[in-house]
Amino acid sequence: MKFTQKKDDKVSHLAINNEGGRAQPLYEHNTHTKQLAKKFGQKLNCENICSIAGELHDIGKSQKAFQIYIRKAAAGEFVQKGSINHSSAGAKYIMDTFAKSDNPFVILTAEIIAEAIISHHGLKDFISPDGDLKFQKSCYSEKYDEKEISEYIQEMLDEIKIKDDIEKAVEELQVLYEAIYERIPDGEYKDDELGFDISAIIRYVLSCVIAADREDTRMFMLNETPLIEIDDNLVWKNAINKLEQLISTFSQEGELNKLRMEISRQCYIAASRQPGIYRLSCPTGSGKTLSSLRFALHHAHKYQKKHIFYIAPYKSILTQNSDVMKQFFCKDDVLIHHSDFIPEDQEKYLYLNSNWSSPFIMTTAVQFYQTLFSKNTTSIRRFHQLSESVIIIDEAQTIPTHMISMFNYMINFLSEVCHSTIVLCTATQPVFEKTKRQMRIYADNGIIQDELQQSDVFKRVHYVNKCTPKGFDYDEYADFIMDCWKKHNSVLTIVNTKKDAMELYKKCLALNEEMNVNVSIYHLSTNMCPVHRNKVLQEIKDKLIANEPLICISTNLIEAGIDLSFSSVIRSITGLDSIIQAAGRCNRNGDEQYGYVYLVKPDKENINSLIEVKEGKMVTQSLLDYIESNDAYIDSILDTNIINRYYEKLYFNSSINMDYMINKPFKETQINLWSGLHKGLEEAVSNGNENLPHITSALRSAGEQFKVMEQTIGILVPYEEKGRELIAFFNGNHPDKEKYERLKEAQEYTVQVYEQKYRQLMEAGLVDCLPFGEILALKEGYYDLQVGLMIDKELEDMFL
Hints:
GO molecular function, one term: hydrolase activity
Keywords: Antiviral defense, ATP-binding, Helicase, Hydrolase, Metal-binding, Nuclease, Nucleotide-binding
GO biological process, one term: defense response to virus
Protein name: CRISPR-associated helicase Cas3
Number of domains: 4
Strand order of the largest sheet: 3-8-7-4-6-5
Pfam families: Cas3-like_C_2, Cas3_HD, DEAD
């Protein structure tokens, strides 16, 4: 990087090693950050907004107090981290200099820049949900020396140049704002989405500043020069050549292979269409993985996209598909990001995880949603990489219902403002465009023709409705499982709760002994650690291949990403999307003309805490009644009009607040916090506050309360000799370095439990706290080789 050197005795960072130390001048760091932030901001055409924030983000470090602080810290003396405020000075300078304008766009620009500066070490609210004016307090903190900072500004900054840059930044924001305003349809929710998009722009600018700041700091501390930029288009070109060569070897014999090739061909043709939001509706066995990648590669190459993201809801799907997709790329061009992935180079992997700079990134929906909405600065750092990309969202129907409004608005922003192409992949396409806060999907957005989706060639199962008004009790349910086994030889039963899985497993074991038939019966749930589950899954797979008789009773963990094929599947009634996922485990390989999927209603199933399962079950039951009353085949639940009807009823009749309602510690929706139209604004106005900021969002509060799923606690279990050895190892007197090196190994012998179940285990004295990293271990005698973690009182929940 080139910059005009000025005399600067102020230090931004100190790198100390055994050979001495190096100091990075503050002016140098700010200039580098400015240049990097400007480069990152170019994709959104907000480079001047980002560059100003980058240049001013650390000018608070020019205080004498901070200079003493950083030298003490480098010398190993105790200092209170964060005790010297260095983030407010740049924000105050911007607000004092430019926010007194009569032009609202000047004020908006100043507030966005100031927010990025004060938030680069932690996101801040403008107005908190209780009406506190957090933005003003952060900008006008009294915890720094204004005189010293003013002297630094006069000596080191070109204020005339900053004024010119501000004028350009205002123009950038005005163009962005007007484009956003034009594309949002007039109506009840226009102000909501407009406010949301302003917050998304703030997140983008902050992402650029954080990424630039951390990258320059890293390069200085490691004494590295900037990495050579990857030629993304060359990456796409090379991957295309490998993929097309593989596709050319595929057989076109038989109707199924011809249809797979036609789907792939239509994905190739569709790749030339303009960037936007697309649907790829593919049934099981249609070659969706390679077809979606074919679309993404050709589209990225044609429109010079920077990244391709593949997002999967479950780690099992990600692991399965990563083996297929990564073969077309050089090793250094691919990042596989999920909690169970074990890299060769841990330090490099953590760096790539934090910035998502790789061309092809495969990650989980959890990581994706956190990047969109979490307050964590590492998540925010990644956000700008989502622009100018192709984003494949697999199994799009798994998006939690309570998040749909946020998801729709953000997908609109990524597509229309960030110029990314979104591909929604699923056999059961949700009608996001028909919710109250709509995703703007156009009528002709399908990548493949409807008749290909509905082709009888892909229909491998018949659906049979066995639901009765009363429902099956456990004895009747177990009898039905055994009857199906006699008829079909292999049966997979999927239930909604772990209690049901356990009870049916015990009932079937008893019937097996009573009938003296000696069929293999397996239980699967997340009460079993990953190694245990994988061992059972392999045994099941081997028996299925050998055509041996077996019964498997499982929670929904088996519905996706598990390559097993049973002759029949029994599914406790639930949402239609989950039923169709379950059917994907039936006659998967087409060994029989048809497999059979039976829908069963348990009589005493307790799913009151599983709101989405309960809602989906109710809508599915009403659809089954509709199909029966119209004398249609039950197989018609696969028809597009039935799937659309299911989602329309689910979204319009649902008691779930799709705006993501927060109940504690305050009652508000995520949408309102992002849009700025929340109760805190009303409170601030009613308190008589003057000079409220133009932007009133509460992004820190929103990020703090955002959770994709309920938090779990890991417990190391004594499964087989290896599990016991790991517990003894972490309980022993070994160097911490050796223990850290075995943490990934320990994950494979860990069961995740919710807090309620954790408390039960602790109160029963079944868990020990080991003297390393707060690791918890289950005592001997409470882990069963068939069902895993044992506890008297089962929670009525469903683990994914």
